[in-house]
Specification:
It is built from eleven helices and four strands. The chain is mainly alpha-helical. The N terminus and C terminus are likely disordered.
Length: about 300
C-alpha cells in the first residue's frame, strides 16, 4: 500500500512538472507580446486551438506525424501574422483598453469560426497518441509526454534566452519592452521588433498546441480556453512586465494546478479553479507587483 501511494505521489509530481512546463511556454508567449506591445492577448488560446485543429485534421487525412506538426506550425504562424497585420497594427496607436477589447473580439470570432466549421463535438487528434504510453523510470510509470514536455520546454526557453541575449533582434525586443518610444528614437524598427515577437509567440503557441493535444486528443472550439485563463493569472502573479517572472508565474500556477488536481478527490475536482484563483488573489494582495519581481512599494495604475 505504501509503495502504491508513493508511486501515485511521484506520478502526480511528474505530471504537475510537465503541466507547469507547458504553462511556462504559454506564459512566455503571452509575456513577449505584452512586453513589446503592452497588450494582453486574450486570443492566445485560440492560436493554440487552431494548431490543435490542424493536428486533428492531419490525423483525419492520415498524414505522417511530421507533416501534421508542420501544418500546425504553418497555421498558427500564419494566423499570428494575420492577427498582427489586420488587428494589432491598425490599433497600435489606440489606448490599451481598445486593444484589449479587440483581442476579446478576435478570440470569440475565431472560436465561432471553429464552431461553424467543425461543430460543437470537435475532432480527435490521434497521430501522437503513442506519447501517452507510460515508461518506467525508477519504478514509477511516467507517460512519455511528461518527459517530452519537460525537455521541449527547457530547450525552447533556452533558445529564447539565447535569442534575447545574443542576437540583435533580441536586444531590440528587450529595449522595446523597457521603453518602446525611446527605443524607436535610438533606431529600433518597430514593425521588425513587433513582427519578431509575434512570430516567436506564435511558434510557442504551436508547441503548446502539440503538447496539449497529446494530453487531451479531443479538440473542441473552447480547446485551451481554460488553460489560457489560468496562465494569464499565473503571468500576473509572476510579474507581467518581465519575461522571466512571467515564465516563472506560468510554471508555478501550472505546477500548483497539477499537484492540486492529483491530490483532490475526483468528486471535488470541480473546486480546483476556486482554490487556484483564491491563491492568486492572496498573492496579489501581498505582492501586487508580482511574486517574482522586486517589490518597489508602488504599483503602476491604469
Amino acid at each position: 500500500m505504501t509503495l502504491a501511494v508513493l508511486n501515485i505521489e511521484w506520478q502526480t509530481l511528474a505530471d504537475a512538472t510537465a503541466l507547469g512546463a507547458v504553462y511556462a511556454l504559454m506564459a512566455v508567449g503571452i509575456g513577449l507580446v505584452f512586453g513589446v506591445l503592452r497588450l494582453v492577448n486574450f486570443a492566445y488560446g485560440q492560436l493554440v486551438m487552431a494548431g490543435a485543429y490542424a493536428l486533428a485534421l492531419a490525423s483525419q487525412w492520415e498524414w505522417p506525424v511530421w507533416a501534421g506538426i508542420v501544418l500546425c506550425f504553418a497555421v498558427v504562424l500564419a494566423l499570428s501574422l494575420l492577427m498582427d497585420r489586420l488587428v494589432f497594427r491598425p490599433l497600435r496607436g489606440q489606448s490599451p483598453a481598445v486593444m484589449l477589447v479587440a483581442t476579446f473580439a478576435v478570440a470569440f470570432l475565431l472560436q465561432s469560426i471553429a464552431l461553424l466549421a467543425f461543430g460543437p463535438l470537435g475532432k480527435i487528434a490521434t497521430s501522437l497518441a503513442s506519447l501517452n504510453r507510460p515508461v518506467t523510470v525508477g519504478g514509477v510509470d511516467i507517460r512519455k509526454i511528461t518527459i517530452v514536455a519537460i525537455v521541449v520546454a527547457a530547450l525552447c526557453l533556452l533558445a529564447l534566452v539565447l535569442l534575447l541575449e545574443r542576437t540583435t533582434v533580441g536586444l531590440h525586443m528587450r529595449a522595446a519592452s523597457m521603453d518602446f518610444a525611446t527605443a524607436r528614437l535610438l533606431g529600433v524598427r518597430a514593425n521588425r521588433v513587433i513582427g519578431a515577437a509575434v512570430l516567436v509567440s506564435g511558434a510557442l503557441a504551436a508547441v503548446v498546441a502539440i503538447m496539449l493535444t497529446v494530453q487531451n486528443p479531443l479538440v473542441t472550439p473552447d480547446f485551451a480556453l481554460r488553460d489560457t485563463i489560468v496562465v494569464l493569472a499565473g503571468v500576473v502573479v509572476g510579474g507581467l512586465n518581465r519575461p522571466i517572472p512571467a515564465t516563472l508565474g506560468g510554471f508555478a500556477i501550472g505546477f500548483a494546478s497539477g499537484i492540486l488536481g492529483g491530490a483532490l478527490p475526483t468528486e471535488k475536482s470541480q473546486y480546483l479553479p476556486s482554490f487556484l484563483f483564491a491563491a492568486v488573489i492572496l498573492v496579489l494582495l501581498v505582492r501586487p507587483g508580482g511574486l517574482f519581481t522586486r517589490y518597489r512599494g508602488a504599483v503602476e495604475r491604469v
